[in-house]
Amino acid sequence: MSTGSIESASTGARTIVRLDHVSKVFGQVSAVDDISLDVLAGEFIALLGPSGCGKTTTLRMLAGFEVPTGGSIMIDGTEMNDVPPERRPVNTVFQHYALFPHMSVAENVGYGPRIRGSSREDTQQRVTEMLRIVRLDSLEDRRISQLSGGQAQRVALARALINRPLVLLLDEPLGALDLKLRRAMQLELRGIQQRLGITFVYVTHDQEEAMVMADRIVLMNDGRIIQAGVPSDLYHRPNSVFAAQFLGETNLIRGSVSAIRADGIAVIRIAGGTLVQAVVPEWARENDEVAVAIRPEGLRLTSPGSDGVESTNRATGVITGATYLGSLVRYVLAVDPIGPIIVDEMLGTSIVPTHSVGESVQVTWGSDSGVVLRSDA
């Protein structure tokens, strides 16, 4: 077992969790495939990805419920591969909270300190503090069966936090809540994490949840880390077609690089001989097969043939669908030869959409509105 604190070379911040080439194999299935990741003290990290991508297995290895097949896991400078769960400076909150129904709220929260031998006075003091932090101090004598879903979730959180773990691991803890309550609890959890300064590693398949809560998102697929970074980077600068499609809505226009201009703009030939202009990445070369990812809000709709519209790209199409989403309208266009395109139009102070189904429109976008990606990435 090696010890010693770790400093991040890039920021100088203390690294509290380090995964170094970690793998986990179940039989013939590689659930986690050679991943490396540093988590800084006080960070809120979201492990995001579809079912079966390896995010929960990664969390279980951090918790000690699974042993890595290869690589090493370090927490606060100490290797944890052979350390049992009860001896790790972590705690875990699951989707199903596993609260004790025969105990009161206060008894559930105080369970950890009691079994660790804390005095009655110390336990009561810590329970009172945690219930105040999660805003349940008026419910300490209530039974678990008398709580709402959100209240039960906060009891589970208080129980996990009362011993002040270095790292709190959360495995889709809001998955059982309805949408409105889940959104409220996202802000609640984030606020608690910021007040306490404890490192959170949070597993979710919900991209919106990750975007709202996390300092950094670690996007996983097929057991590997596809991209890691702050939410805005993953959204605006995805590094692959998978990343572009998993985070938010996106339009993909596939083609090949016809030419690369001196100003860094690529001319991309798509179906039907249409040319699209986009900022070219350093790796791109002429004749490369690429995909241009454009977010729906990066497109603009005007009347066909409109003059005075500054844009490097334009096409005409017919609106086949329109969905009112409160602050915006999401249009679906049939654009020949590109195919279906989604366009989000903000309504501003108007509540009336400016276009209707069946209308012919012109769609435009700037060369910097799209991200050029490897077509097979």
The averaged pLDDT comes out at 89
Computed over alpha carbons, the radius of gyration is 25 Å
Please state the structural category.
Answer: alpha+beta
CATH superfamily of the largest domain: P-loop containing nucleotide triphosphate hydrolases
Strand line-up across the major sheet? 7-8-9-4-10-11
| CATH topology term of the largest domain | Rossmann fold
The shape is globular
The number of helical elements comes to 9
Poorly predicted regions are 1-10
The SSE string, one letter per element, is EEEEHEEEHHHHEHEHEEHHEEEEEEEEEE
Number of separate strands: 21
Report the sheet-strand fraction.
Answer: 35-45%
Question: Portion of residues in helices?
Answer: 10-25%
- Any idea how many domains? 2
What's the CATH C level of the largest domain? Alpha Beta
Verbal overview:
This protein is α+β, with helices and mostly antiparallel strands. The chain folds into two domains: 239 residues, Rossmann fold, CATH 3.40.50; 126 residues, OB fold (Dihydrolipoamide Acetyltransferase, E2P), CATH 2.40.50.100. The chain is 22% helix and 36% strand. It has nine helices and 21 strands. The strands form four sheets. A six-stranded mixed β-sheet has the order 7-8-9-4-10-11, with helices on both faces. A hairpin with a 3-residue loop joins strand 18 and strand 19. The longest helix is centred in the middle third of the chain and has 18 residues. The N terminus is likely disordered.
